[in-house]
Amino acid sequence: MRRILVGGVSGSGKTTFAAELARRLGLPFHEMDALFHGPGWEPIPTFVEDVGRIAAGEHWVFDSYGYTAVRELVWSLADTVIWLDYSRPIVLSRALRRSFPRALTGEPIFNGNIERFGDWWRADHPVQWGMRRFRPTRAELEARFADPAYADLTKVRIRRPAAAAWWLDRVGRGSGG
Q1: pLDDT tens for residues 45-104?
Q2: Which residues pair with 8 in a beta bridge?
């Protein structure tokens, strides 16, 4: 495992899982949202080029199965895709547990952006996005996992948070970490 995508619905814990996986394997971690969203949540104009430069490297972990603009690129270069395929209640509870404290405290996240309670009604807020995109995201990953074009990829589908912890523990032991 040298080039790894960690996919799943918004709120599934991709960033936490991917960062920990990268740490255990000694690989560089890249947060896809931070590459896409600049200050004020504005898209970064060099997003596609930035992801392309990183993906051309020998080692990386992305916490995304790829924004539409870069999805084919990262899938074509990945050697492993890990899908955090959790139930809707787990994803919703995780998204709420993450977003509520951020909105309450005004804690800045990537590129100085702040989640606000007023943003929760927007279609692109992580809680709304995760619930609205739950089925389409699952369908997309299901199709990609079954697609013969990706037969050479190592694919790992994790359906419970306890299984994710178990898997990370085994990876850490296997890499000497």
Answers
A1: 999 999 999 999 999 999 999 999 999 999 999 999 999 999 999 999 999 999 999 999
A2: 84
Q: Is 52 exposed, middle or buried (0-12, 13-18, 19+ CB in 10 A)?
A: middle
Q: Which residue has the tokens 């850490």?
A: 172
Give the CA-trace dihedral at 90, 24, 68, 114, to 10 degrees.
Answer: 70
The DSSP output letter for 127 is H
Q: What is the DSSP letter of 82?
A: E
- Alpha-carbon gap, residue 29 to 18, rounded angstroms: 7
Go through the chain and tell me how many residues it has: 177
Spatial distance between the Cα atoms of 138 and 133, rounded to a whole number of angstroms: 8
Which spans in 26-133 are helix H? 32-36, 47-55, 71-77, 88-105, 126-132
Q: For 98-114, give one letter per residue: b (16+ CB within 10 A) or e.
A: bbeebbeeeeeeebebe
User: CA-to-CA distance for 70 and 112, rounded, in angstroms?
Assistant: 24
> How many whole angstroms separate alpha carbon 115 and alpha carbon 124?
11
- Please give the structure tokens belonging to residue 172: 């850490």
- Rounded to whole angstroms, the Cα distance separating 15 from 33 reads 10
Radius of gyration of the chain (CA): 16
